[in-house]
Specification:
By secondary structure, the protein is mainly beta. It folds into 6 domains: about 140 residues, Sandwich (Immunoglobulin-like); about 180 residues, no CATH class; about 110 residues, no CATH class; about 70 residues, Immunoglobulin-like (Sandwich), CATH 2.60.40; about 80 residues, Sandwich (Immunoglobulin-like), CATH 2.60.40.10; about 90 residues, Immunoglobulin-like. The chain is built from 9 helices and 55 strands. Strands 1, 12, 13, 14, 15, 16, 19, 27 and 30 form a 9-stranded mixed sheet that branches. Strands 40, 42, 43, 45, 46 and 47 form a 6-stranded mixed sheet that branches. It has a 5-stranded antiparallel sheet with strand order 2-10-9-6-7. Strand 13 and strand 14 form a beta hairpin. It is elongated and about 135 Å long. The termini are far apart.
Length: about 725
């Protein structure tokens, strides 16, 4: 921990504001910036800036670098990544604006590639000895960071979808009154935000930190307080996150999650956790997002990327840096209101010696104090409200303070970085010289909580349109492969649609066709560009289709009238049925089985309990008609066919002395049944039908007629 932080943090917030907002000095940005710092030197590095602060990746224009230094340095230079040296001067030459003003300057050719590339080291010497070395990180607009719509309110205020930019004069950038900034913000916003980020451009050398404004939760060790009215909020604002170094503002970073976590963690001054305040003591708990306090209580946060593995009477320290950045651990999740008490399973294994960072591979159990979560609850009481009543969706706004209005590339860069708070999967993050796959808030909370970062900015608005109400043509759901239409009935000039908190581009009408599950909302805009309050989010579901049914026939699909073909649908789900012939519904055919009495193509439609539809494969049924019926009545059952022998078809003729139920089947010489010709009730008289033998191999076959009156007649036919 650099002692520089103690000097600079007090400059950032006006003294009167610091009294009402408790500061939680936090994530170690200074460590990632300064690799050498002699606090005994009379020369002091106060700040740096790049102009422009964000550089387009395709730009070839040199960058102006300036460094503000107190005292009389003997040398100020930049050692670039390729080891070449650039001398800085305060003589009004080569880009330096004014000689002898304590601002040392140089023009630098920007790197050709990279996002937030490491530019090199700023090195400051006094009396020939180096007293400071600073890592220089450049913010670069890359192709995946699109330019955004920026609306100018006046010469000191503008906004995009995710960034509210306000001008703060350079002579007061370290002493602004955050109350005035917040009140200016709320002139154009409803009381819709739990947190506000404040990012400084160009900023100064200092750590990120969190300041809480309000707390209504018991069991956190914090006072119950609500100072939100002082900042323009009507009660919703919980706290601020401050980013003195703009290149460390990344809403997908571990440090970003860390600052939000300080709204709840750690304020247990009367417990076994007090030595770690405002983080955890050096312990297994410190392997979570909140880390441990460097130098003991009230120190800046540091990562503890080690697991404590029990081995007999000792604990082995195992490197776990592969899992950086971490998820919020279960103690942290409980304090945030995301899980109940019974889901906090881990013990707190705390080093007794909190003055020395552990470097050994193993420590005896006697070196630790071990506590259960119930031990903490006995001291501080349970969290109230409990997780079942605690919010799981949070909103956050980003204010970027700058000496002049940001240009379109700077707005695009910070808009992109602010929007990453809503990311739903890991994304690449660069902090100082380190890179890693960051876990945005949703991921870090294991899907238990969401963070919305989009703004809803109004300006020059005497009246605001009413809050839109979303309606759906299908109860906010659609069947897989289909869609539903969302509609808002509030009349407006245009509309801004959101899915999962992200703006849907090129959708400006009052209807939206949705074919993707998610949480949808809409804002109505009038002709001035004034926005309504965002509608309530509506979760749109994608409903699964029922499993495709299988249809099978009970026997042959080709029969002779008056026979029918029985079709049966099989499915593993509870569904309703509708049989169709030639894709047209058959009246009253709503059972799992259907008897087809006509030739045609049949299928079954199944409908799930949620109303989604699927269809079976089509099955073809042929009902062969009886060709002719004689009016004469034989004296006994007769059976014959002609021609015989035959090659493909023959006519089978049978006669009945009285009406009977008939079965006519074909057999091989060995008696194996190979086909059913007719089965059904026939009247007295002669009946003639065609028999198709195209599929039968040549040979001798038996055809047999049986009736329900115990008649049986058998004849031979020859297929050539």
């Amino acid at each position: 921990m650099f002692r520089l932080l103690v000097i600079l943090l007090v400059l950032f917030i006006h003294e009167s504001v610091a009294q009402s907002i408790p500061e939680v000095a936090c994530f170690r940005d200074v460590d990632a910036l300064a690799t050498t710092w002699d606090t005994a030197a009379t020369v002091a590095l106060k700040g740096t800036r790049f102009t422009p602060s964000v550089v387009n990746q395709s730009s070839t224009v040199p960058i102006l670098f300036e460094s503000t230094i107190e005292g009389q340095p003997s040398e100020v230079k930049i050692e670039l990544a390729d080891k070449s040296i650039i001398a800085l001067n305060d003589k009004g030459l080569e880009g330096d604006k004014t000689g002898n003003d304590g601002i040392y300057s140089a023009r630098i050719a920007r790197p050709s590639t990279g996002w937030q590339p490491f530019l090199g080291y700023l090195k400051v010497s006094e009396n020939g000895a180096q007293v400071a070395q600073l890592n220089l990180i450049l913010m670069v607009l890359t192709p995946e960071m699109p330019l955004v719509r920026t609306v100018k309110i006046d010469n000191s205020t503008q906004f995009s979808d995710y960034v509210f930019n306000m001008v703060v004069p350079s002579n007061s950038s370290n002493t602004f009154d955050v109350r005035q900034i917040a009140q200016g913000f709320y002139k154009h916003h409803g009381d819709n935000f739990d947190f506000i980020n404040v990012v400084l451009v160009p900023g100064y050398i200092g750590n990120r930190y969190h300041s809480y404004v309000s707390n209504a939760i018991q069991g956190l060790g914090m006072p119950i307080v609500n100072n939100s009215a002082s900042y323009g909020s009507k009660g919703k604002l919980l706290g601020f996150n401050f980013f003195p170094v703009p290149s460390f503002f990344d809403a997908a970073s571990n440090g970003y999650n860390h600052e939000i976590g300080h709204q709840w963690i750690n304020y247990f001054s009367n417990s076994f956790l007090k030595e770690g305040i405002p983080h955890w003591p050096i312990s297994n708990l410190a392997a979570g997002v909140m880390g441990f306090s460097i130098g003991g209580a009230n120190g800046a946060g540091g990562s503890f990327s080690r697991k404590l593995v029990e081995e007999g009477n000792s604990f082995k320290l195992v490197d776990d840096s592969v899992n950086f950045p971490p998820y919020f651990n279960d103690w942290e999740m409980y304090l945030m209101g995301l899980i109940p008490t019974n889901e906090v399973s881990s013990l707190a294994i705390i080093f007794k010696d909190q003055t020395t960072f552990p470097t050994e591979n193993s420590y005896p159990k006697s070196a630790f104090n071990i506590f259960s979560f119930s031990d903490l609850i006995r001291i501080v009481g349970e969290r109230s409200p409990r997780s079942s009543q605690s919010p799981k969706e949070f909103t956050i706004a980003t204010i970027v303070l700058s000496e002049t209005l940001l240009n379109e590339e700077e707005m695009a860069y910070f808009d992109f970085m602010a929007k990453r708070a809503e990311a739903t999967s890991q994304v690449a993050v660069r902090e100082g010289l380190s890179t890693y796959m960051g876990k945005p808030f949703l991921v870090a909370t294991r899907g238990k909580a969401t963070l919305k970062a989009a703004l809803n900015t109004n300006f020059s608005c005497d009246q605001v349109l009413p809050k839109p109400v979303l309606i759906s043509d299908n109860n906010f759901s659609f069947c897989e492969g289909s869609s539903t239409t969302l509609k808002v009935e509030t009349a407006a000039a245009s509309y801004v649609w959101y899915v999962d908190g992200t703006v849907i581009t090129d959708q400006k009408t009052n209807t939206l066709v949705v074919s993707k599950a998610g949480s949808y909302a809409v804002v109505a805009q009038d002709t001035k560009g004034c926005n309504s309050v965002r509608s309530d989010e509506k979760k749109v579901e994608s409903l699964p289709l029922p499993a495709r049914p299988t249809v099978v026939a009970d026997g042959n699909t080709t029969v002779f009238a008056p026979q029918k073909v029985k079709l049966t649908a099989s499915t593993s789900e509870v569904v309703t049925y509708q049989w169709q012939k030639e894709n047209v519904n058959i009246t009253n055919a709503t059972q799992a089985t259907y008897e087809a009495a006509e030739s045609g193509t049949y299928r079954v439609q199944v409908t799930s309990q949620r109303g989604c539809i699927n269809f079976s494969e089509a099955i073809k049924v042929e009902i062969q008609p009886v060709l002719s019926t004689s009016v004469s009545v034989p004296q006994q059952v007769e059976l014959m066919n002609f021609p015989n022998p035959f090659s493909q078809t023959t006519q089978i003729k049978f006669g009945l002395p009285s009406a009977a139920s008939v079965s006519l089947k074909i057999y091989t010489q060995t008696g194996r049944e190979i086909g059913k010709v007719v089965e059904g009730k026939y009247g007295a008289g002669w009946h003639v039908l065609d028999f198709d033998a195209k599929t039968l191999p040549a040979g001798l076959y038996i055809y047999r007629l049986e009736t329900n009156q115990s008649h049986k007649v058998e004849k031979k036919m020859i297929v050539e």
